[in-house]
Amino acid sequence: MYDLLIKNGKIVTAESVTEGNIAVKNGKIRAILIKGEEPEAKKVIDAEGKYVFPGAIDTHAHLNDPGYTWREDYEHGTAAAAVGGYTTIIDMPLQNEPAMTTAEIFDKKESIVSPNAYVDYCFWGGLIPDNFDDLEELDEKGCVAFKSFIGPVSPDYSSLNYGQAYEAMEIIHSFDGRAGFHCEDYSMIKWQEQRMKKEGRLDWQGFLDSRPVAAEMVATVDMIELAKATGCKVHICHVSSPDVAQKIKEAQQEGYDITAETCSHYLSMTDKDVLENGPLFKCAPPLRSQEEVDRLWGYVEDGTFSGIASDHSPCSYAEKYEEILGQKIENVFDVWGGIGGIQSGVQVSFYEGCVKRGISPSTLAKVMAENPAKTFGIYGKKGALKPGFDADIILIDSEKEWEITSESLKYVNKISAFVGMKGKGLPVCTIVRGEVVAQDGDVTDTKGYGELVKKIKEK
Ligand SMILES: [Zn+2]
C-alpha cells in the first residue's frame, strides 16, 4: 500500500504535460501511473483540473537566521516558501551572525534552523577573502555552492577583488564546486553614487542611474573570463538584464559550465515601479524597463536561466522608511535594498510566464525545479516528478485568481513590493517528501519537518 496517491492531475515534467496519478511511499515518488490506475493508498488527493508540478527550488534566499531574525527567520521564511510553492530553498551565508564561512558554523547554523523549517533547505557556503582554507571542508559538509560579491555588501561580509576571486575559483574548481557571484562592478556603482550625490540627485531616478546595466555587464563578463581561465563552474546571481543574459548564453554555447538565475521581480516589475513607489521596490541590481522585462523572459524560455529565484531579502518597515541599525535614512541611497518575495515567486512566475505570455508549464518546471537541482548538485533527490525522487510536489490551480495582500504574507515583516499585485494561477497545495506542508494559503502542523539537503557527491 502506498502512503499517498495524487490522482487526476495534469502532471508537468520538463518534457510534457500528461494526465495521470502519482504514487508515493516513504517520502519518495514510487510510480507515475496513467489516469484511472488507482492503487490503494493511505491518503488520496484529488487534483482534478490542477497542474501537478515538481516542487520549485529557490536558488537564492536570505533567511537571515541566526543573527538578523528581526528581518526574517526560518520559521516565517520557510512557512512563506511552503505556502508559495518552493519546496527547497538555498539559503545565503550572509546576513547571518556569524556569517556561514566555516564548517563549525555550518553545524551550528543547522542545529539552530532545523527545528523551525517547513521546507527542505540547502546552504550556500560563504566565500570571503579570509576563508579560502575553509572552502573544501564546507564542500564536504554539503554546501551546494559558494557565494561572493564583486561589489558592495553588508558590513558583516567582505567582497572579493578579481585577484582573490581568481584564487578562490582555482580552489573551488579543485573539488568541483560552484562559485556564485553578485555581479555589479564595485568601482563603477560607488563612483556613480558619489556622482549622483554631488549633483544633488537623491531621488529614485538618481538611484537607478547609479546602477546601470553596464555595471552588471562589466562584472558578469569579468567573472565569465575568470571562469574560463580557471575552469571553475560559476553561477551568476540575480540577472536583471537581457543583455547580460545574452553574454551568459554565449559563454554557455562555447561549452562553459556557467549557470545563472533571474528573479521573479525582474520578470514582473519595472523601473517605473521604483520611480512611482520608491523604497519597497529598491533592490540590486535595480529593476529595469518593461522592454527589458519582456526580453528577459526570452532567456527563461530558451533555457539560459536555471532558476527563477526570489532573492528574498527582507527587512523591517523602518529599514525601508526610517533608519537602518541606528542610521537615519536621509535619501534613496540609505534605504535598505532588497525585496521580500519568497512567498510570491512561483505564482507570479506562473502568471507572468504561463498565463500572460503562453510559456508552457514544462518550461517553468524546467527552470524552477529540474535545472536548479542540476546546477546545485541535488538532482536525483530533488528536481523532477520521477520514480526515486523525493515526493516534492505542488498543485497549481490555474483558474484561481489572486491578489497579494500583506495579511496573507507569512514573513516576519509583512511588507513586500508584491503587495497589491494581481494575477491568476496559484499553488494551492505544497508537498515535501510526501507530506502536505501547506494548503490553501496556510501551513500545516509541520514546523521542523524541513531537512537539510546536501550536495550529492558524484562517485
Ligand atoms: Zn541576494
Please provide a written account of the structure:
- It is a single chain.
- By secondary structure, the chain is α/β, with parallel strands linked by helices.
- It folds into 2 domains: 2-52 and 390-400 and 422-443, Urease, subunit C, domain 1 (Roll); 55-375, TIM Barrel, CATH 3.20.20.140.
- 31% of the residues lie in helices and 24% in strands.
- The protein is built from 13 helices and 20 strands.
- Helix 4 (162-174) packs across helix 7 and helix 8 runs parallel beside helix 10.
- It is globular, with a radius of gyration of 21 Å.
- 55% of the residues are buried.
- The model has no long low-confidence stretch (mean pLDDT 97).
- It binds zinc ion (ZN).
- Zinc ion is lined by residues 60, 62, 92, 311, 313.
- Residues 60, 62, 92, 311, 313 line the site of zinc ion (ZN).
Q: What is the secondary structure topology, with strand pairs?
A:
Layout: E1 2-12, E2 17-25, E3 28-34, E4 41-46, E5 51-54, E6 56-61, H1 74-84, E7 86-91, H2 103-113, E8 120-126, H3 135-141, E9 145-150, H4 162-174, E10 178-183, H5 186-198, H6 204-210, H7 213-230, E11 233-236, H8 242-253, E12 258-260, E13 262-263, H9 271-277, H10 290-301, E14 308-309, H11 317-321, E15 323-324, E16 327-328, H12 345-356, H13 361-375, E17 393-403, E18 422-432, E19 435-439, E20 442-443
Parallel strand pairs: 1-4, 1-5, 6-7, 7-8, 8-9, 9-10, 10-11, 11-12, 13-14
Antiparallel strand pairs: 1-2, 2-3, 5-17, 15-16, 17-18, 18-19, 19-20
The structure holds zinc ion (ZN).
